[in-house]
Amino acid sequence: MTATIADLQSIGWPVNGLRTGIDAATDAALPPGWARLLDAHPAARPARIVEQHRSGYMVAESPDTGDAPGNSYRAESLPEWTRPAQYRKGEVAPEERPAVGDWVLVEGEGGSARIVALLPRWSAIKRGAAGEHYRQQLIAANVDTVFVVSGLDDDFNPRRIERYLLLVSGTGDAAERSALEPVIVLTKADLAEAAEPGAVAAATQALRALGDPGLAVCALNARDRDAVATLSPWLRPGRTVVLVGSSGAGKSTLTNSLLGIERMKTGEVRGSDSRGRHTTTHRALIPLPSGACLIDTPGMRELKPTGEEDVAESFTDIEALAEQCRFRDCAHAREPGCAVRAAIEAGTLDAQRFANYLKLRDEVAGAAGKLADRLAQKAQTRVQSKAVNKRQTDKYGKR
Ligand SMILES: Nc1nc2c(ncn2[C@@H]2O[C@H](COP(=O)(O)OP(=O)(O)OP(=O)(O)O)[C@@H](O)[C@H]2O)c(=O)[nH]1
Ligand SMILES: [Zn+2]
């Protein structure tokens, strides 16, 4: 069961790695921290997480040959990855545990395979978990492209798309983010055009006007295998794409068309509100015939920021306008010489986009405050436990 480097690359192993074998010593161009971990676990082999279940992980070392996604097998996780997260000392926060798309090191064969280490990620798509306490939830790791899937039906909502784009801005540091591209995939173009000729062009136009002129927008019929071929620039071998979007947006339909087979179960949309049933129940990494890997995610009802997002980066148009306001600390409310309000009045800035910007800015600030509290609490626990250790060392000497 020894995977070749080609096997690993075909499920997304970094190609820059120039690896000739699983030998950390010969490799200079692996992502930061990888060589050290490979060295530290000489008996382990790399594998990628393709499915995440409540009870554990499915990992793979090579692409699909039959029914099982990527010849996957079950691997036991480290005990600290299964305990509930409390953010107490020694606990592993959910975002620090492996997720679909992560590369891990595995030891043992057959039924006794177990994950021994998590390789640092180059990108991570996260959101704030639902619930009262601050928690992060990892959606996918090590992705190159995010397909924001949105149906051109009653569900179409540019404000929600702005929210998804904001999520992409919270994925890591600037260098990591620059490698990560969002693409807006508008499904149900066939239905929209039939209902109202010109609707697709109008929606596409509206989204292109959202701040970033380079933003990729593709409108298509997700059921049409030829139509989804327009996504091929992002589906080159070794690339990883994650699909995000509301339930019923067409993520599974798109996956099926890209696969060319009927693999994911798709829910029939209820006539009245055109929302799908919740058919995708867990995240999974699926190798595509094109050589890319696709991560499908269950529809998301709530999309809370983690506090790490960069609102300015997502709303460059508004930030640029704000620079032209007469007052540096302009709140864009009733101040004279406000360039933002002037743009809204002139019709060059959408008032709803501005309102959404304010709302998201508040949400990110709120989440950032909670995140800071949590980190402070964690640091405090660390200081306390260090103090205890020191007292014990002083009293009993080093053990
Ligand atoms: N006509 C048409 N129907 C589509 C298109 N995309 C999706 N549908 C239909 O919309 C419904 C929902 O699509 P799914 O692919 O199940 O949606 P999903 O995003 O996977 O939903 P979850 O799994 O719940 O997250 C299905 O009945 C699809 O056949 C499209 O481009 N054109
Ligand atoms: Zn202003």
UniProtKB/TrEMBL annotation:
**Which residues does the UniProt record annotate as the domain CP-type G?**
135-303
* Record's keyword terms, sorted: Cytoplasm, GTP-binding, Hydrolase, Metal-binding, Nucleotide-binding, Ribosome biogenesis, RNA-binding, rRNA-binding, Zinc
EC no. given is 3.6.1.-
Q: Which cofactor does it need?
A: Zn(2+)
The GO molecular function terms of this record are: GTP binding; GTPase activity; metal ion binding; rRNA binding
**Which top-rank group of organisms is this from?**
Bacteria
Q: Where is this region: Disordered?
A: 379-399
Record's keyword annotation contains Cell division: no
> Where are the membrane-spanning stretches?
none
Question: Keyword Phosphoprotein: yes or no?
Answer: no
Q: Which residues form the EngC GTPase domain?
A: 141-301
The listed locations are:
Cytoplasm
Which family does the UniProt entry place this protein in? Belongs to the TRAFAC class YlqF/YawG GTPase family. RsgA subfamily.
Functional summary from the UniProt entry: One of several proteins that assist in the late maturation steps of the functional core of the 30S ribosomal subunit. Helps release RbfA from mature subunits. May play a role in the assembly of ribosomal proteins into the subunit. Circularly permuted GTPase that catalyzes slow GTP hydrolysis, GTPase activity is stimulated by the 30S ribosomal subunit.
Q: How does it assemble?
A: Monomer. Associates with 30S ribosomal subunit, binds 16S rRNA.
Its recorded name reads: Small ribosomal subunit biogenesis GTPase RsgA
